[in-house]
Amino acid sequence: MSDTRLLPVLPLDDDVVLPGMVVPLDLTDTETRAAVESAQAKTPSQASFPGIRSTGATKAEVLIVPRVHGEYAEYGTVATVERIGRVPGGKAAVLLRGTARALVGRIADGPGAARWVHAEDAPETTDDRTAQLAAEYKAVVISILQQRGGWQLIDAVQQVEAASAIADLSGNAPYLSTDQKLELLGALDVTARLEKALEWSKEHLAELEVTETIRKDVSEGMEKQQKEFLLRRQLEAIRKELGELDGTAQDDDYRARVEGAELPDAVKKAALAEVDKLDRTSEQSPEGGWIRTWLDTVLELPWNERTEDVYDIAAARAVLDADHAGLDDVKERIIEYLAVRKRRAESGLGPVGGRRSGAVLALAGPPGVGKTSLGESVAKAMGRKFVRVALGGIRDEAEIRGHRRTYVGALPGRIVRAIKEAGSMNPVVLLDEIDKVGADYRGDPTAALLEVLDPEQNHTFRDHYLEVELDLSDVVFLATANALETIPGPLLDRMELVTLDGYTEHEKVTIARDHLLPRELERAGLGAADVVLTDAAFSRIAAEYTREAGVRDANRTIAKVLRKVATKVALDEASLPLSIDAPDLPDYLGRPRHIPESSLPASTQRTATPGVATGLAVTGAGGDVLYIEASLADEESGASGLQLTGQLGDVMKESVQIALSYLRSHGAELELPVGDLRKRGIHVHVPAGAVPKDGPSAGVTMTTALASLLSGRVVRADVAMTGEVSLTGRVLPIGGVKQKLLAAHRAGMKTVIIPQRNEPDLDDVPAEVLAELDVHAVANVREVLDLALTPASTPVSQAA
Fold first, then answer.
1. Catalytic: which of 655, 697, 708, 711?
2. Closest of 159, 57, 47, 48 to residue 100, by C-alpha
3. Cα(745)–Cα(360) distance, rounded to whole angstroms?
4. Three-class DSSP category at 156
5. CA-based radius of gyration for the chain
6. Among 17, 259, 591, 783, which residue carries the largest CB count within 10 Å?
7. How far apart are CA 493 and CA 495, in angstroms?
């Protein structure tokens, strides 16, 4: 039978006292005072109560029972009253020492105002692991005390030997919650109690170690910064006293650098203000780094550096002609610019209204015509520095105007960086692929280019990063684009448009012979005399193997020929030197991919069947031929109406409707059986079907195809046409005449029909192209049909 004692209850709110703990309690609390007074009033007669033994102790005892959320715990701690006195401040207090665990039993009667209960002793159990766990927990407690600096308590902990007492040391742990301490109070198995206390203590020790590591790192970093700050200040003072300044010190002296630099007045004022701000900024502040970066950028810009323009007009023209064949419009514009600059220099005239005579040219044309390489040739001809700025794919407005300095990693825009890279305030800046600039939530870069490319306001250009005025009025801007449709109207209005419509066959031969072949020979490891391609070979490459507006595909074709030559030489199948003529090309390139329509047998020509006509179109890759096919449904099929295929746009669909309406209303005049148009279905198709097509210039071609279909007269294979058609049969003007005539020439056409009102555009077409084409300017559809359709009596086999 377990020993039972009668003890007064001392309730303890939201706290737990374990055996071995010494706690002071305030006697002003009513329940505490009642429990202590009742324990002191206990009489020896209580020993005669059945089942209750006399303690024989000289010290009064109480049962401390935790009361959590208003409920008493199952177990309590028997505590002796060690001392009663007053604490500093005059309040009465009692000092209690926990001695053992006890199970709270039934309520009993006793002296005093306190509640008395029967406290039953709670026996503890141990096993083989108890001693090992006790030693491990004791070591963890000592480590925690060392982390917290509790050196006076370490000796007391080391003197504790009993495993149960070691486990109850956790009662003094401030990092344990009340619920955890209650769990330890109720754990009669010493081993289980040690396991729980050890787990919780290890977690707390790990937290302390991490905190200590962080504290040490921070402390060491602060000490290092303070040490470096003091040493730098001392070094600066020593150098100042000795009057010694090395290169590093001079570099750090931004005030002297700004004062010594030849900066514009407004820029110098802004730079000095930033220097003053830098002097007031702490060495540890990140703002100091931002200011230094800004000052370095401003000091590196060539504010007063300009290259002297070359005023030898003949030499400049020779440079342009040597680098590029053709492109007369661009060359003429550059020569005009230099001539005006020369005239103003000779007359002693300076800038006009603060603006210099810069230029903004937009070079628009298909790929491969030399727009990008032209910029470097222009810079060489003018004697200026050249910088290329690639704009393709840019979507951030800050790429042009720069970032605000408040952003981390802020940089000036590409325009400022181009000026800095050039080292001159009057370079030639090539804005490559300006039509490929996009826009998203970060802004529209084309809007930022409005100020850059406006000759009326770019002399006061402000970059968001610099925030000082930068004069761009002496810069020659060359912008390249493939398609003008994607460039906003206001931006295009600020540039002088120069169109590069492609090369003639003669120009391609010249470029291939003088530029492409020497470069590819070097890349293939061949000498200039090792391989010779005749002009006839170059001409066949341009006409039958590439057929493009530029020369990029021709360049790849020439490289392919030279690779084949190098391979044959390596295999001893050929020997150098080697001459390649037009008939030899199939041995290196295979059969031609492009054969002129007019050179095919009449039976295989696309226009050998009535209802097919050849039109001319303009694409992003230059001019091209466009075949339009029409067919009538069989009367027995019952089909009716109009069907259109080939991914036609709305404008081109309307052109078909206009052509059909015209033929229905004027069929009798043209001697066409228009009754078929009402009885049978009509299908109009424009190959290639996977390519979207739109525009009004195919109206003439569609009318001719339908007229050919109705009359049974085939369209001449060597005739191509372009023009818009009205409901009254008038042929209206269109655009891109030069590009379309070059495409017709490349395709081997002999006759071209254009609107009469487009005759002035023929002045832009190269003379050698016009000499090989029979161009007819027409005013109405009847003239078109008379030229394009073969006579009614002509057999199909003779239509060509």
1. 697
2. 57
3. 32
4. helix
5. 49
6. 17
7. 6
DSSP codes joined into one string, 444-484: -HHHHHHHHT-TTTGGGEE-TTT-SEE--TT-EEEEEES-G
443 contact partners, CB below 8 Å, separation of at least 6: 396, 397, 398
Half-sphere exposure of 519 (CA within 13 A, CB side): 11
Can you give the pLDDT at residue 722?
Answer: 92
Residue 606 carries which DSSP code?
Answer: G
- Report the C-alpha gap between 718 and 750 in whole angstroms: 5
DSSP string, 740-773: HHHHHHHTT--EEEEEGGGGGGGGGS-HHHHHH-
Q: Which two tokens stand for residue 97?
A: 């020492």
Q: Which of 138, 385, 508, 740 is catalytic?
A: 740
Q: Which residue has the tokens 């000052």?
A: 295
Residue 345 has which token pair? 């220099």
Cα gap 143→169, rounded to integer Å? 14
Smallest CA-to-CA distance from 20 within 162, 189, 175, 186 is with 162
Segment 15-27 mean pLDDT: 87
DSSP code for 518: H
Which phi and psi angles does 183 have, rounded to 5°? Answer: -65, -40
| CA 795 to chain CA mean position, Å | 63
Handedness of CA 739, 740, 745, 747 (dihedral sign): positive
- pTM value is 0.60
Tally of CB atoms within 10 A around 667: 18
CA distance 540 to 545: 7
State which amino acid sits at residue 102. Answer: A
Say if residues 17 and 79 touch (Cβ distance below 8 Å).
yes
Q: Which residue has the higher pLDDT, 281 or 541?
A: 541
The set of long-range contacts for 565-574, using a CB threshold of 8 Å and a minimum separation of 24, is 565/524, 565/526, 565/531, 566/524, 566/525, 566/526
Sign, CA dihedral 396-399-400-405, equals positive
Chain segment 686-712, per-residue pLDDT in tens: 887 667 777 888 889 989 998 888 888
Strands 61-68 and 75-86: what pairing? antiparallel
- Percent over 70 (pLDDT), the chain: 90
Quote the CA–CA distance of 582 and 562 in Å, as a whole number. 15
Contacts of 132 (CB under 8 A, 6+ apart): none
For residue 495, which of 507, 505, 508, 481 has the smallest C-alpha distance? 481
H/E element, 83 = strand 75-86
679-691 pLDDT tens trace:
777 888 988 766 7
269 assigned to active site: no
What pLDDT digit, counting tens, does each position of 542-600 carry? 888 887 878 888 899 999 999 999 998 899 888 888 889 988 888 888 888 877 665 56
Rounded distance between C-alpha atoms, residue 39 and residue 25, angstroms: 15
What is the biggest distance separating any 2 CA atoms in the chain, rounded to whole angstroms? Answer: 151
CA distance 268 to 259: 8
Six token digits for residue 95: 């000092």
What one-letter code names the amino acid at 558?
Answer: I
Residue 384 identity (one-letter amino acid): R
Helix (H, G, I), strand (E, B) or coil at 693: strand
Which sign does the torsion angle of CA 536, 537, 539, 540 carry?
Answer: positive
Establish whether 637 is a catalytic residue: no
The token duo for 571 is: 């295999």
What is the token pair recorded at 494?
């600020």
SS3 528: coil
Q: What distance in Å separates the CA atoms of residue 454 and residue 164, rounded to the nearest whole number?
A: 90
Torsion from C-alpha of 121, 127, 132, 137, nearest 10 degrees: -30
> For residue 316, is the peptide bond before it cis, meaning its omega torsion is within 30 degrees of 0?
no
Strand, coil or helix: 158: helix
